[in-house]
Amino acid sequence: MDKALQTMINNMPEKTGKALDEWLLILAKENFEKHTVAVKFLKTKYGVSHGFANTIVTLSNDNNISSEDLVIAQYKGKESLTPIYEMLISLVEKLGNDVVISPKKGSVSLIRKKQFALIKPATKTRIDLGLKLKDIAVQNRLEDSGPFGTMCTHRIQLNNIIDIDDEVVQWLSLAYEKSV
C-alpha cells in the first residue's frame, strides 16, 4: 500500500506540475472544509486528474494519520470484515503494479489512471465493493451502484470471505482493465 502511494507521490511533480509539499501549501491557504470541494478546486483551477487531486486532498486532510490507521479506524467494531478487506487488497495488488490504494476516512479507493473500484465497510456485517463498469448491465450479484452514486456504476455486497469468488474476481479485473 505505502509503496504504491509513494510511487504516486514521486510521480506527482511530473504528472501535476508540483510536488506534494507545494500542493499541501496551496490547500492549506484555501482551508476547504469538504473533501469534494477541495478535489474539484484542484481539478478545475489546476487541471489535476481526479486520482491525483483525491490523493493530494486525502493526504492534506490526514497529514498525521497513516493509511494503515485510516483502515483500522474504518473496521473498528467491524473487525470480522477485515479478512474480506485483506483478501480484496491481495487480489488488487495482483492486477498490476500501477494500482494506487488510497484509504480515506470511510472507504478505500482503488485507482489506476482513474478510480476503478472502492471498498467500503457498509455495515457491521457487510462490505460493499463498488466498481466502475460503464456499459455493463446489472446482473446477478452485480447490482446498481446504490449508495455510491456516481463514484461507481455497480456494487457487489460481500458478507463473508467465501463471497469473493471467481465472479467477483472477474468483475474486479474487468473494472481494472477498463480504467486505462
Question: How is the topology of this model organized?
Answer:
Elements: H1 2-16, H2 20-30, H3 35-46, H4 50-61, H5 67-74, H6 82-95, E1 100-103, E2 108-111, E3 115-123, E4 126-131, E5 143-144, E6 154-158, H7 166-178
Antiparallel strand pairs: 1-2, 2-3, 3-4, 4-6, 5-6
Helix pairs in contact: 2-4, 3-4
Characterise the protein shown here:
It contains 7 helices and 6 strands. It has 180 residues and is of the alpha+beta class. It folds into 2 domains: 2-64; 69-178. Strands 1-2-3-4-6-5 form a 6-stranded antiparallel sheet, with helices on both faces. Strand 2 and strand 3 (115-123) form a beta hairpin. It is globular, with a radius of gyration of 16 Å. The mean pLDDT is 89.
> What is the count of DSSP helices, taking H or I runs of 4+ residues?
7
- Average pLDDT level: 89
SS-based structural class?
Answer: alpha+beta
Q: Can you summarize the main beta sheet?
A: 6 strands, antiparallel
Low-confidence stretches: none
Shape: globular
Helix fraction, binned, reads: 40-55%
Strand content: 15-25%
Trace the largest sheet across and list its strands: 1-2-3-4-6-5
What's the SSE pattern?
HHHHHHEEEEEEH
What number of structural domains do the residues give? Answer: 2
Distance between the termini: 20 Å
Total beta strand runs: 6
Work out the oligomeric state of the chains in this entry: single chain
Gyration radius, in Å: 16 Å
